[in-house]
Amino acid sequence: MCARIVDKEAKRREILLAAMHVVARHGIGNVKVTNIATAAGIGKGTLYEYFPSKEAIYGAIIREYLDRAEVVAARKMALANSPREKLAALLSAWLETTAEESGDFLRLFIDVWSEAIRLTSPAVAKVFDMKSYFHEYRAFVASILQEAIDGGELRPIDTMVAASGLLAIFDGIMLQWLLDRDRVDVPKTIDTTLDIIWNGISKK
Hints:
mainly alpha; 10 helices
């Protein structure tokens, strides 16, 4: 009798989906490895063959999301013809990727984000290094703004400060959308907000 061949990637995905479902129901603070293993239909030992901890599972889920968002952003930005279009492309890529996700993922994402802010769980904070995450994207947005300044589109400003403000605004828009999807038109809101900001710092 031949041994059953296990599709490692499919099993890994099953574990990630099970983790999202369990966290969505109970919250990160109440979830144990056994809960995830049970939801995935496997034993703890098998789960540990794929991930060393539940925090590693959370990190893998978020990393997959970020990787997909970066691929979409790169594709959209390659078609952009100006710094403003690049910024709009970057923001729309995050929107498109987020919109594809399930409610379970979004609840897990917010839970991990909250834990990282509170720093009550170093293990959770480690899988989502918010400082590095925001530093990376502040620097990237700042480089787009600097390109616009160098091209004469915007007046000289502190690009890192401006990038921090932009990210804060658009994080807020996404949070409103997550809480009230029927009333928040994200594409229109982003376009209008970006228009207001761009006109405010344009070179007169």
